[in-house]
Amino acid sequence: MDGLETLKAKYLMAVAAAADENALEEVRLAALGKKGEVSALMATLGKMDPDQRKAAGAMLNVLKDEIDAALRAKKAALGDAALDARLRAEWLDVTLPARPRRAGTIHPISQVMEELTAIFADMGFAVAEGPQVESDWYNFDALNIPPEHPARQEHDTFFMHRAEGDNRPPHVLRTHTSPVQIRALMDKGAPIRVIAPGRVYRMDMDQTHTPMFHQVEGLAIDRDISMANLKWVLEEFCRAYFEVPSVELRFRASHFPFTEPSAEVDIRCSWEGGQLKIGQGDKWMEILGSGMVHPKVLAAAGVDPAQWQGFAFGMGIDRIAMLKYGIPDLRAFFESDLRWLRDRHTHRPAKTRV
Ligand code: DAH
């Protein structure tokens, strides 16, 4: 058993030199593997006489243990180094922003809702809300649209499915924001000044209609509110919203079941070279419906029409967004095309100012 010291030195050096776990495994196989050098020496023990075998066996076991210990220690060291390297490579700064900030933009409809909320807030209007799935009482009956009224058909209503035996009142997807008038009055009573921007639904789809669109409802009730107040509020709103020094509005007699008298309102404008100008020109663009709240509507909401009166209006948000930002096709608003949305943000057209 001479040469064991040489063998030990050889393998301890090889272990020390192994650069990674694969190299180390090769060293282990060469020494302690089935066909390894130490194993081969072990195999010679059988041919020795008992005394020799005892002495040589003990020495070989010590050698085997020493090499094995060196292998394990090195393996652990290599593992730590590998982990360190991996941790370094996969280091992540969790304080970095998740996405570049400029990737997010505000949808033009949201932006217009914010703008109009701010403008009406300056005139003392709070924001009221109501559900999009609405009972037909709020959507129609309370607004003086009884079941047989033709206006119900005109609204192209989406009805909610009802299971058999369900006898709760019928529900619809609200066809306008007007039911929020009723909710706000029942909730807060008079006097009141609110706007209610939100989504509404009708079965309609073409270049200027989508099944879901947006309206803003306005309601002002007090002891002596008149059409003159309505006119001033709407003019103020249009000047501020379209950012023009003056606007001209035209009130056309109309009919809505929930107002008496009723008026549709047009704004003076012109189209020059495909560019819309608000405030001057010889064209008129319809932007909203309005009127003095019908006494029956006030009564339905628990407000005494002998004491209180006021105006209401309903305006299409998508329409005024198209007008301000020069967007010709309403459907673009709801296709969620990121290229279009980004373009809205970066290329806002010049103001439609005179
Ligand atoms: N609710 C009406 C619609 O959707 C719009 C409207 C007209 C609202 C006149 C009003 C109003 O408050 O007074 O077509």
Describe the structure.
With 354 residues, this protein is an alpha+beta fold. It folds into two domains: 4-89; 108-343, Bira Bifunctional Protein, Domain 2 (BirA Bifunctional Protein, domain 2, 2-Layer Sandwich). It contains twelve helices and ten strands. The strands form two sheets. Strands 1, 4, 5, 6, 7, 8, 9 and 10 form an eight-stranded mixed β-sheet that branches. β7 (259-272) and β8 form a beta hairpin. α2 packs antiparallel against α4 and α5 (108-122) crosses α11. The protein is elongated and about 125 Å long. The model is unreliable at 346-354 (pLDDT under 50). 3,4-dihydroxyphenylalanine (DAH) binds next to β9 and β10.
CATH topology of the largest domain: BirA Bifunctional Protein, domain 2
Q: Which homologous superfamily in CATH is the superfamily of the largest domain?
A: Bira Bifunctional Protein, Domain 2
How would you spell out the order of helices and strands?
A: HHHHHEEHHEHEEHEEEEHEHH
Radius of gyration: 41 Å
**Helix amount, in percent?**
40-55%
What is the total number of structural domains?
2
Strand content: 15-25%
CATH architecture group name of the largest domain: 2-Layer Sandwich
Largest sheet: 8 strands, mixed
Low-pLDDT sequence parts: 346-354
**Heteromolecules bound:** 3,4-dihydroxyphenylalanine
Mean pLDDT value: 90
Quickly name the level 1 CATH class of the largest domain. Alpha Beta
**What is the 3D form?**
elongated
How many angstroms separate the termini? Answer: 108 Å
What is the count of helical runs? 12
User: Could you say which structural class the secondary elements and strand pairing correspond to?
Assistant: alpha+beta
In total, how many beta strands? 10
